[in-house]
Amino acid sequence: MDDAENTMSPLEAMKAWARGEIRTRDALTLTGSDTLYHLYAACAASGVSLYRDLIPQEQVDLIASMNLIL
């Protein structure tokens, strides 16, 4: 994560992540989200549109985090 990313607000981080400009790990850190599921929920609650395909590891992480909630 570079200095510009360190100064992003959580909302800016969600928008940058949705556009594919920052890594998922960085978005989780900057938004304070514990899991990919929570990051998606934060985006939805904030009105950030998500039109990006998950990479295979993100798919695994999302499924795992959803199982923890159930």
Q: How many β-strands, per DSSP?
A: 0
Question: Please, how many helices?
Answer: 5
Order of helices and strands: HHHHH
The profile of the biggest β sheet is: none
Share in β-strands: under 5%
Low-confidence stretches: none
The computed structural class is mainly alpha
Distance between the termini: 32 Å
* Mean pLDDT level: 83
Radius of gyration: 12 Å
The helix content, as a percent range, equals: 55-70%
Per the principal axes of the C-alpha atoms, what is the gross shape? Answer: globular
Structural account:
The protein is an all-alpha fold and 70 residues long. The chain has five helices and no strands. α2 (10-18) packs antiparallel against α3 (24-31). The chain is globular, with a radius of gyration of 12 Å. The relative contact order is 0.16. The mean pLDDT is 83.
Q: Which helices and strands, and how do they pair?
A:
Layout: H1 3-6, H2 10-18, H3 24-31, H4 36-46, H5 56-69
Helix pairs in contact: 2-3
